[in-house]
Amino acid sequence: MHQLRHSEFSGNLLRLLKRQQCTHYRRYLPEHCLVSYALCRACEKKNNKPRPTIQNALNETATEIEIISTPEFTNFPSLITRYTHTIMGHIDTYVQRHGSILVGVTTHTTFTRDVDGHFSRIPAYFHVLPQITNAAQPFNLDIVSDNLDSQVLYFTARGSGYQLEAVHHIVLCRPLVDFTYIPTPSSWSTRNA
User: Fold this and answer.
1) Torsion (CA) 99, 66, 130, 79 in degrees, nearest 10
2) Distances from the Cα of 32 to the Cαs of 11, 12, 20, 39, 49, in angstroms?
3) Residues 15-58: pLDDT tens digits?
4) Three-state SS for 70?
5) Do residues 166 and 71 make contact, with C-beta atoms less than 8 angstroms apart?
6) % helix / strand / coil in the chain, to the nearest 5?
7) Which of 1, 55, 104, 174 would bridge 130 by S-S if both were Cys, CB 3.0 to 4.6 A apart?
8) What is the DSSP letter of 55?
9) Entry pTM
């Protein structure tokens, strides 16, 4: 009896050793289950299965366009007048591409003051609330210019003595205009919850 089991085990082991091993799951399979050397049909089918395309929409939803200013601009109306064509060109490009976008403006400036021979310089950042922009509703630079100018006047009107030294750059932000669609995996959609 013991001899029979030993020979049976030896036969099974011999057959197992004659089989090829799948490199991915390390299973010993007969020749007809392998597609190529050391790759079984199940692994090949899994590798060739179409996967959902996940698109990274971050670059399309939060774009910052920086317009660098020169130190000669000491107020926002003159800066925006000088760069109107550039600003509107960027915005029109995105409107043509996406149809409707949301555009906000952020600026970086410096203020200076001289009190009794003590010179100080501080950075200041101003932000304009976003505007919905599309072909029927163009971006209004006059609102941006007036809003930024009134923020500077409000900042300097409190008697601090700071004066706008320079507008260093203006950034157009185009936040959250698109969405990313990631399809639900079929294994999740077929579950009974």
Assistant:
1) -110
2) 20, 18, 10, 11, 21
3) 556 667 777 667 777 777 777 767 777 777 776 655 544 444 44
4) coil
5) yes
6) 40, 30, 30
7) 104
8) P
9) 0.57
Q: Which two tokens stand for residue 100?
A: 């409707």
- Domain-by-domain residue ranges, the chain? 2-48, 58-175
For residue 69, the model assigns a pLDDT of 62
Alpha carbons 73 and 92: distance in angstroms, whole number: 25
Q: What is the pLDDT of residues 115-174, one digit of tens each?
A: 888 889 999 999 998 888 888 899 999 999 999 999 998 888 877 888 888 888 888 876
d(CA 156, CA 57): 40
pLDDT at residue 21, as a whole number: 75
The CATH class, in words, for 58-175 is alpha beta
Please give the Cα distance from 10 to 101 (Å, whole number). Answer: 73
Q: Could you tell me which residues come within 8 angstroms of residue 99 by beta carbon, excluding any fewer than 6 positions away?
A: 134, 135
Whose CA is closest to 55, among 185, 183, 189, 173?
Answer: 183
Per the structure block, which two tokens stand in for 122? 């501080």
Residue 126: what pLDDT?
92
**The predicted structure's pLDDT at residue 150:** 92
DSSP for residue 1:
-
The arithmetic mean of pLDDT across residues 61-76, rounded, is: 70
Residues in the chain: 193
